[in-house]
Design a protein that fits this description.
678 residues, alpha/beta, OB fold (Dihydrolipoamide Acetyltransferase, E2P), Rossmann fold, 6-stranded parallel sheet, 23 helices, 39% helix
Length: 678
């Protein structure tokens, strides 16, 4: 941070020790922290409405004259609550204003004075009121910032502190971007941006300031990721250069690979043949066949005499991967083992001995793989499935089991390439953009719970025709105990009411690994017709005969999660259906109806990103990279501009040591918590 802006907050006029203590709860300890504490919204006090047009429950700004004295009434224990009330009028009507324990504000109000009152209107018959509004003199009808608050500080105190900081320290705000970039991309200066993001004269000023800081934030983020990628590419790894006839692997499959799958496999093998570590993200839509790509690379590593490890985020997915891959590898003479938290002590000892001696070629499992006592003889390939479910430290812990092994990350959340380069900027990106032949489009519908009898009747018809189905049980509370109870009770209700004499089983995250494996095997082999489950089936489960997916309480799930669940059906050549059950209307129902109109995972993830943000969609709070405070990954225009600026900067050799980029280099170091850019 610029010298001087690092001063303690108490250096600002009017900020004493008590206020500084309160501001510290908001993470504000220095002058720079305060300037970087941006408003979450703005109030335009110039846009007023007549009192008679106030609607119940809606916020509004009213310009009116105080027509009575301010009266005070004390209530509560010992008169602890002071209610100040008075009436105002604007000529169209009058209304009551009530203030709670705001003596300082109440004493400043003058009968006959004109003010602007902003707050949520309450209308009962002809009576109108606003309780505890923001009050400003009528001649101060400007745009006001609204900040996130904590107990002990109000908007006015924060605005006053920010105003004082800008008055006293604006001269120390240094420009970080070169003039040619500011001019080329139509940005305003940094000093002007600070003034306008906190105290804009109009909405246009605040937009320009926000755009400037968003571009700056994305630029630092992208440059930091480019540094990480450069460092990754310097990691020396064992090159796997042996001649391998991949046609042997391909001919062992019961299906043909798509052109996209073969392209991605070749991209990865080309990486693995180099003496530098592969760090590649493979993303593809639901059902695009990422697992067989991983299998091909593990086969390649084995043929070069090396071991592979594949880590899945859940036991159910690890079990499914092991079940599918072990039967494939067995035909090829490759040994494959499963290690999870539920693996018994004797089996665990056998597996540990096997991977250390090299008798086990491929180890599939959960976080159990990264425990300290798990050691490999020659680990050359690490695969993390559903990367966004892992923290970056967990991924690193697995790679540390070998000497800079090649790393493959798989993600079933399809996102536009530009967005992927931002989120996973330290990785090379491959996209499987082709689905296997013969897949039919899944028909999706939103239904009310009143349609249960008809819907489950249709499900029964499908079962009688030899098909299978998933039912995702109602999500009550997001914790293991309630989910376990919910899935068991719901499966019992279905068996008693709608699906009598049909073979139903349930699956949840708390079940022992062996029990999960048994249920999945029986469902896969057709012994179980309906699988009632929590969202543990969200990824990885592959049963081509399953043609119906019913998701209860669908409004409680994100769009990308719904897309993953829907992707459990439609994996064979038979027509498939997905039913989203909700009793909500309005925006919640519209969101689900829009989801039903497309099966394009890229479009769905874009919508989810706009609705919920990247933290929920990608687990970005866990990926070990700094968060974005202002920027949105859904803002493709800003992403594009920031990417362009970053490319222009990094095209200059040793850019971080050039004087015109010194402030940018320092900002990148601060953002990523490093001591140097190189």
């Amino acid at each position: 941070m610029e010298n001087g802006l690092n001063n303690k907050i108490t250096c600002i006029k009017g900020v004493g020790a008590k206020r500084a203590e309160t501001l510290a709860k908001l993470g504000i300890e220095t002058v720079g922290n305060l300037l970087d504490y941006y408003p979450r919204a703005y109030l335009d006090m110039s846009k007023t409405v007549p009192i008679r047009e106030i609607t119940d429950g809606e916020p509004a700004a009213v310009r009116a004259t105080l027509i009575t004295d301010v009266s005070v009434k004390r209530t509560g224990r010992g008169g602890s609550l002071a209610l100040y009330s008075f009436f105002v009028s604007d000529g169209t009507d009058s209304m009551q204003i009530t203030l709670f324990n705001q003596k300082y504000t109440a004493e400043k109000l003058m009968r006959g004075g004109e003010y602007i009152f902003y707050g949520k209107g309450e209308v009962t018959g002809f009576f109108r009121t606003i309780k505890s509004p923001i009050i400003e003199p009528a001649d101060n009808a400007s745009v006001f910032p609204v900040y996130p608050l904590s107990a002990g500080i109000n908007q006015k105190m924060l605005r006053t502190s920010v105003r004082a900081a800008l008055n006293e320290y604006s001269g120390l705000i240094k420009e970080t971007l070169p003039d040619e970039i500011i001019e080329k991309y139509g940005l305003i200066g940094r000093k002007e941006a600070y003034e306008n993001i906190h105290f804009p004269e109009n909405a246009e000023d605040s937009k320009k300031a926000l755009h400037r800081f968003v571009i700056e934030e994305l630029l630092y983020f992208i440059l930091g990721l480019s540094v990480l990628k450069k460092k990754n590419r310097k990691r020396v790894s064992k090159p796997l250069t042996c001649p391998v006839d991949m046609s042997v692997f391909y001919s062992s499959l019961s299906f043909g690979l798509t052109g996209a799958q073969k392209r991605v496999i070749n991209e990865c093998i080309e990486d693995m043949r180099r003496p530098l570590s592969m760090t590649r993200l493979v993303q593809g839509d639901v059902g695009s066949g990422k697992t067989v790509v991983a299998a091909a690379l593990m086969y390649y590593a084995k043929m070069c005499g090396a071991q592979s490890a594949m880590m899945a985020p859940t036991e159910v997915l690890a079990v499914q991967h092991h079940s599918n891959l072990s039967s494939l590898f067995e035909k090829l003479g490759i040994t494959c083992a499963l290690l999870t938290g539920s693996t018994g002590a004797a089996e665990r000892r056998r597996i540990k001995e096997g991977i250390l001696s090299g008798k086990i070629d491929i180890l599939i499992g959960t976080h159990a793989l990264i425990q300290k006592d798990v050691a490999f003889k020659d680990l050359a390939l690490v695969i993390a499935d559903e990367q966004h479910r892992f923290g970056v430290n967990q991924r690193s812990a697995l790679t540390e089991k070998g000497e800079n092994p090649h790393t493959l990350i798989m993600s079933a959340t399809p996102i536009p390439r530009t967005m992927a380069l931002i989120l996973y900027g330290d990785l090379d990106v491959s996209v499987i953009d082709e689905l296997p032949a013969g897949r039919q489009k899944i028909s999706s519908f939103v239904v009310n719970s009143a349609a249960h009898e008809k819907m489950y009747g249709y499900l029964r018809e499908q079962i009688m025709a030899g098909r299978q189905a998933y039912v995702v049980c109602p999500l009550i509370e997001e914790n293991d105990e309630s989910e376990t109870r919910s899935v068991i009770e719901f499966s019992e209700q279905l068996a008693e009411k709608y699906l009598k004499y049909i073979n139903i089983a349930y699956l949840h995250g708390k079940m022992p690994a062996k029990e999960k494996e048994t249920v999945l095997r029986k469902f896969s082999e057709g012994e179980i017709s309906v699988l009632v489950s929590t969202t543990v089936i969200e990824v990885g489960i592959n049963v081509p005969n399953a043609t119906v997916m019913i998701i209860e309480n669908a409004e409680k799930f994100g769009l990308s999660q719904l897309h993953q669940l829907r992707g459990r059906v439609g994996r064979g050549s038979k027509k498939s259906w997905c039913f989203l059950v909700t009793d909500l209307g309005g925006q919640s129902r519209s969101r689900l109806e829009n989801f039903c109109k497309t099966t394009d995972g890229f479009e769905i993830s874009r919508q989810d990103l706009e609705l919920r943000g990247p933290g929920d969609l990608f687990g970005s709070r866990q990926h070990g990279l700094p968060g974005l405070r202002l920027a949105s990954l859904a803002d493709m225009d800003s992403l594009h501009d920031a990417q362009q600026i970053a490319s222009e900067i990094t095209s200059k050799k040793g850019w971080y040591s050039l004087p015109e980029y010194s402030e940018i280099a320092s900002a990148v170091v601060r953002l990523f918590g490093k001591t140097t850019v190189v």
